[in-house]
Amino acid sequence: MAEVILKDLSKSFGNDVGIADLSMTIPDGAFVVLLGPTGAGKTTTLRLISGLEKADAGEVWIGGRNVGSETPAQRDVAMVFQQYSLYPHLSVRDNLAFPLKSPILNTPADEIERKVAEVASVLQISHKLDNKATALSGGEMQRVSIGRALVRDPSIYLMDEPLSSLDAKLRTDLRVELKRIQANLGATLLYVTHDQIEAMTMATHVGVLNEGRLVQYGTPREIYENPNSLYVASRLGLPRINIVPADVFGGMPSGVTQIGMRPEHIQQGEGQEAEVQRVEHLGDQARLHLMLKGHAITTIADPHTTYTPGAHIKIAPKNPLCFDAEGVRIS
Ligand SMILES: Nc1ncnc2c1ncn2[C@@H]1O[C@H](COP(=O)(O)OP(=O)(O)OP(=O)(O)O)[C@@H](O)[C@H]1O
């Protein structure tokens, strides 16, 4: 596996900015998750690293090589797309074996068989190895396309929402497996997701993109606990962080115009009186949806809470994040 360095990378499509001056180091063995809303430039970043797209400016370094003039094959990256891309006329076994049969790798037959069996087992598709790729459900096809990447030992795995088409149970299983595989192999991974739990549990690093720019890069905990802007604070956390004008609670230092409160950072029993709008019982906890001076606020409560809609509850922020009028974090 390898370290990947992006230096001042830019790519536009006509008037649309794909990526702007993106610099980022993906350490060898890191699991880096890219977060950002649609159009932020996540897929473009993966395509620039893989060589499917050519940068307007800047450099991509993989394992100490500037790969600007290399083809995708020479770059030795394994990419998994959101939508499966299989060879329909081949069996699942042959689809999985295909990357290992390339003349560059020249893998011995017994090694191919071992790897295919191992990956099929991890992805829970061993019983489908002799099926035609087309005789599979959508979720199974996606597992085969993940498997086609995992049989290889590339410089970096590039994955674009690989689990988004799977059902919840399989998604949870594969999330754990992917993380285990990455940790065991020491694999380097760049991974795009909109899924909060995937980002928090799998990533060693999270990069937050906004309109093609990297606006913060750090561990998931740093991004969650110490976001540098309101934009970044809103990217991680479910339920989302509550943002209210500073004067709703008052007592904030000058210059603070908005405060951010994670649902778990709201003190109950003191402060301003809010009205309960809705209570969601989730089993291990309850979510309270409150209204305070026209602002919707979500917080969490004991799973056996007896609050019902219409009840009143006093709340106060506990260590809120403070932002200025532009959304820049000021404390
Ligand atoms: N082939 C293309 N032709 C024209 N514009 C493109 C092309 N690829 C990307 N773009 C534009 O570049 C910007 C970034 O797109 P990109 O696909 O990288 O975003 P993304 O963060 O991956 O979004 P999503 O979450 O929807 O996949 C968008 O404005 C998009 O319209």
UniProtKB/TrEMBL annotation:
EC class (word): hydrolase
Keywords recorded for this protein, A-Z: ATP-binding, Hydrolase, Nucleotide-binding, Transport
Transmembrane segments: none
InterPro entries hit by this protein: AAA+_ATPase (IPR003593), ABC_transporter-like_ATP-bd (IPR003439), ABC_transporter-like_CS (IPR017871), ABC_transpr_MalK/UgpC-like (IPR047641), Mo/tungstate-bd_C_term_dom (IPR008995), NA-bd_OB-fold (IPR012340), P-loop_NTPase (IPR027417), Transp-assoc_OB_typ2 (IPR013611)
EC number: 3.6.3.19
Gene Ontology CC entries for this record: ATP-binding cassette (ABC) transporter complex, substrate-binding subunit-containing
GO molecular function, one term: ATP binding
Residues in ABC transporter domain copies: 4-236
Family the entry assigns: Belongs to the ABC transporter superfamily.
Protein name: Maltose/maltodextrin import ATP-binding protein MalK
Gene encoding the protein: malK_4
